[in-house]
Amino acid sequence: MAGLYIHVPFCRSKCGYCDFYSVPGADESLVDRWLAALENEASFYRGFRADTLFIGGGTPSSLSPSQLSRLLELARSLAAGGSFAEATIEINPGSLDADKAAAMAAGGLNRASLGMQSDSPRVLETLRREPGDFRAAFRALREAGFANISLDLMTGVPSQTEDEVRSALDSALALEPEHISVYPLEVHGGTDGTGTPCGMVSPANAAGLSEDPDGAEAAWRLISAELEKAGYARYEVSNFARPGRECRHNLNYWRAGDYLGLGPAAASHFSGLRYATAHSLGEYCAALEDGRQPPRFSLEDLSPRQRAGERIMLGLRLAEGIEAADPIFIEFRQELEELLAAGSLKLRDGRARVPEKGLYVANSVLSRFV
Fold first, then answer.
1. 125-142 confidence digits (pLDDT tens)
2. Each residue's pLDDT tens digit, 252-301
3. How far is residue 36 from each of residues 32, 209, 287, measured CA to CA in Å?
4. What is the β-pairing status of strands 346-348 and 267-270?
5. Model pTM?
6. Nearest CA to 320 among 351, 290, 287?
7. How is the chain split among helix, strand and coil, in percent rounded to 5?
8. Domains of the chain by range and CATH?
9. What three-state secondary structure class fits 246?
10. Rg for the chain (alpha carbons), in Å?
11. For residues 309 and 195, what is the distance between their CA atoms, to the nearest angstrom?
């Protein structure tokens, strides 16, 4: 299985917590230039075929219906069998309307990830999140034919109360989505690894924002318990789904599968070779207009031990865990035995898993393998 990720580097305004690369307020001519460059980049991969598609950003739903149609035509040219088993697009509620939802469905998308975050105006204002009617956006997606919709909720926002967390969860459950993701607020340094400010939290955007890890953990535990009662199974630390509605594209990431990333700041992985395109729309477009591959800012050829460690680290985030007899543990037998002896990992049905009580702080366990 292989996945295709397309990065849409545009948004109407920058959210205070976002460190993904994007260009706020771009005009139509720049979007069209990017689309032409993206088509040129895709031409380098005519032999590649993907089973799943994920369009992220930025804010993909900021594109016009005609731009969405052009983007999706390009994506389908790389689909195995001409269509994707799962095709997801990220949506900001404030930038979706019925025409865009219809263009998305007509273009082959069958899953939407709607960035609700909260139903509290105060919380959204704290996050500097563009206001939008998530209920209207959800209805528009359903009316366009989307039968698989995910909602994002954010926790650990400064001064976020338990009542605000419960209200957001209740509002989400009332819509009956197929999938819910729960993410803690994380404030990063806001650079792309080269010192260049890139996004989800540039120092200017992050001013006044701070993490509340204790509040985030308490909210995660509360939400996890309530989602289980409502029939959602936790299949990854932050992700909950109705049966059969797990995100197949992201499962491919967590199982260390192959994926191609197109667009500035997009990452790719093929059999242990990992690279990412530079965080510069100008450089990206200029290179492709000149017939060259876009510049890359990182290139890693993982050693067998690194590949095994990464597979363990990613796989242990999943509720299914990893088969204890899997050869990837050969390199890490001592670490596995120590973590089992300490109770940080548990064996059940021949599979190693992080126990429920340790899931939220699993990074201390996972770091042993990288």
1. 999 998 899 999 999 999
2. 999 999 999 999 999 999 988 999 999 999 999 999 999 999 999 888 89
3. 6, 37, 12
4. unpaired
5. 0.92
6. 351
7. 40, 20, 35
8. 2-254 (3.80.30.20), 304-369 (1.10.10)
9. coil
10. 20
11. 28
